[in-house]
Amino acid sequence: MADFSAKFYANFIKDDRWLGLVTGLKVTIIVTLEALLLGVLIGFLIAIIRSYHDKTGKFKILDILCRVYLTVIRGTPTMIQILIMYLVVFGASSLDSIIIGGIAFGINSGAYVAEIIRSGIMSIPAGQTEAGRSLGLSYRQTMWLIIVPQAFKNVLPALVNEMIVLIKETAIIGYIGEQDLTKAAMIIQSRTFDAFMPLLAAAIIYLALVMLLTFFMNKLERRLRTNER
Amino acid sequence: MSASQNVNQETLIEVKDLRKAFGENEVLTGITTDIKRGEVVVIIGPSGSGKSTFLRSLNLLETPTGGTVLFEGINITDPKTDIDLHRQKMGMVFQHFNLFPHKTILENITLAPVVLKKMTKDEAVQKAEELLGRVGLLDKKDTYPEQLSGGQKQRIAIVRSLAMDPDVMLFDEPTSALDPEMVGEVLELMKQLAHDGMTMVVVTHEMGFAREVGTRVVFMDEGQIKEQAAPDEFFQNPKDERLKEFLSKIL
Question: pTM of the prediction?
């Protein structure tokens, strides 16, 4: 027991080392939020373009571009994408790596979100579109007021899943010099030569973050289901 | 009073040589007919005869591959025509109701009139409540479609179309998905509409409705109109061989 408290003291209390974890958590959250925002934006745009193309045959070039994007992003490791973004695309710029990371993760996540939302749109029966259009609503109005709200509800569990993956995946941002939660734990380890305590602490914080997110999303899901028995 | 008294000579929909093909498969092979204001046109025919496709071509839910549809004098098959504008005047009722499950009954009815700025929110609610009262479903206004029976859903779907003040109502097999005991309540409402002078085009298998409410019955087969006449003439004195065969099977 004395051993445990000594280790705990050395890893977290001494030199205010716990502060590193707090700053790291902040970085993890910021990068996740940036990526989430960008990812949902890209995902929505691509899902709408591709569904529109599937339905009408228009936007051929855009559809091909979208498919290239999906293939490349889903077919290469996130790690490589991050490194390319940091060393090549923004290699010469002085942009903060926390922004570069957010952009890279956002572009990555967008590919997955796009397919999730597209599957949601496809899950809504054609009769819903026909009902909307027959009332005189435009394609856009029908999409926005009738299809997307129902699609969103159907894919919420899959979207939450993607958000969880995203939170954890940001752990590799350390490779482009950003001190996130994982990197903060490794820094403590390099000072104290104890790997177990700081890594366990990081793991527990990730777990708590994911559980918190799941809790709120479950609540949202229940609220959206009020119209069903 | 019979519905036929409401028919006047003003042509509402003019269909000229309408054609529709899905790839190689020709579903409509040239249909020409007029629908006059106040008419109740009932379309019957074997499955695969193209009757639903014809109905859905009238408001361009199916894009025709040939021919024209003139609605209130305007060529709506012209790609330059803003079809959304004209669809506001053409109500449609579907076999599977297609109510919006994420909206309450009241929201289902008021959505289009408000979004399309035909009415203010208050006016739309007032109109919806009045229509709901007429079909005896006012107490359901705050429930969701999921909680209604099939017959109730279809009556709501009719009300949703009526809220747009359409000049014509298109019915695509409105009772085919209903349990038998609910067919009556929907047909009764449609009958009431016909008597109020609504122009209606109805694809159905309900011969009783065709005979009693229709002002004209149309028989379609192989993507064409094979015969059309007033109900009495149509059922008592059919001329087309296919129609005779069809009637002998179902009557």
Answer: 0.86
